[in-house]
Amino acid sequence: ATALPLVINTWAFRKAAETAWKVLQLGGSELDAVERGCSQCEIDQCDGSVGYGGSPDESGETTLDAMIMDGNTMEVGAVADLRRVKNAIGVARKVIEYTKHTLLVGESASMFAVRMGFPYEDLTTPKSLSIYSKWLNQSCQPNYWKNVVPDSSKSCGPYKRPEKVSYKEEQTIKDLQRRVQNHD
Amino acid sequence: TIGMVVVGGSGTIASGTSTNGAVHKIPGRVGDSPIAGAGAYADSTAGGAAATGDGDIMMRFLPSYQAVEYMRMGTDPAVACQRVISRIQKYAPRFFGAVICANTTGSYGAACNKIPGFTQFHFMVSSPLLSQPTEQVVDCI
């Protein structure tokens, strides 16, 4: 038997399903339901894999990815590698509503979010910091590197390609690292 | 990662995802979630789907788009999800991943890839046939 409306979501994220269902019951659109349901998981940090304070990268930073799609118009709004803004799917919805683009990424996506009125805030928490420091203390295992020196299955980086890196490339890497470190 | 598909009273569909990505990723790494057709897809003339799991692998197969295209051909949502998992299995038999599918009539299903430690996939469903949002479980294939 089938019946409409329907909400289905991955994992046993109950509050997300309840929130989406409530939005529909109150007359919200399907897009509103998806946005509010997924936002609920961003707020609740669902199982640590959604929202702020989870999945720190190699530098200890949490970044967020989200998308939302309207099956009537086939419009999509998406953000990726979003930094320092918590409501990723809320920003994705604004990409649909206020731009002719589909996907915004990185720090520039954060600047767009701030312009849309979203707060610019740290996504790190004691939890994500402890995940990160444990990882550092276990020789950065696991990681996503391969075919590099030092051996990425045994130690932390920085990693390089095994063949001799030319002096010029060395300089470029140093310049880049200096620029990135000065970034924040 | 949360992936969600909503089918409205008149069968119109929206979908979405939100995630903080892979833990300990290389800075700049983006997975499947924000990529239309990979993390999620919606077409009110056919259906909606959303995926979760190892995004570095899954995104290459556009699982959500493919599942919707199967449903467009009349495939039952559960079978559409299974077929998408099978497609990825051929190239990456040990990938971690699951997909949820729903068509415009409100039929739905889910599928996942069976690997050690991941043999069942839990997902949430809300519908007028259920008194409240209900957790459902599917055995992985």
Which helices and strands, and how do they pair?
The complex is a heterodimer of chains A (184) and B (141).
Chain A: E1 6-10, H1 14-25, H2 30-44, E2 63-70, E3 75-83, H3 88-98, E4 103-105, H4 106-115, H5 126-137, H6 167-183
Parallel strand pairs in A: 3-4
Antiparallel strand pairs in A: 2-3
Helix pairs in contact in A: 1-2, 2-3
Chain B: E1 2-7, E2 13-19, E3 40-43, E4 47-53, H1 55-58, H2 63-72, H3 77-91, E5 97-103, E6 108-112, E7 120-126, E8 134-139
Antiparallel strand pairs in B: 1-2, 3-4, 4-5, 5-6, 7-8
Fold and architecture overview:
The complex is a heterodimer of chains A (184) and B (141). Helix content of chain A is 42%, strand content 14%. Chain A has six helices and four strands; from the N terminus they run βααββαβααα. The longest helix of chain A has 17 residues, at 167-183. In chain A, a hairpin with a 4-residue loop joins strand 2 (63-70) and strand 3. In chain A, helix 1 (14-25) packs antiparallel against helix 2 and helix 2 (30-44) runs antiparallel to helix 3 (88-98). Chain B has three helices and eight strands; from the N terminus they run E-E-E-E-H-H-H-E-E-E-E. With 141 residues, chain B is of the alpha+beta class. In chain B, the strands form three sheets. In chain B, strands 3-4-5-6 form a four-stranded antiparallel β-sheet, covered by helices on one side. The model of chain B has no long low-confidence stretch (mean pLDDT 98). At the A-B interface, strand 1, helix 1, helix 2, strand 2 and strand 3 of A face strand 1, strand 2, strand 3, strand 4 and strand 5 of B.
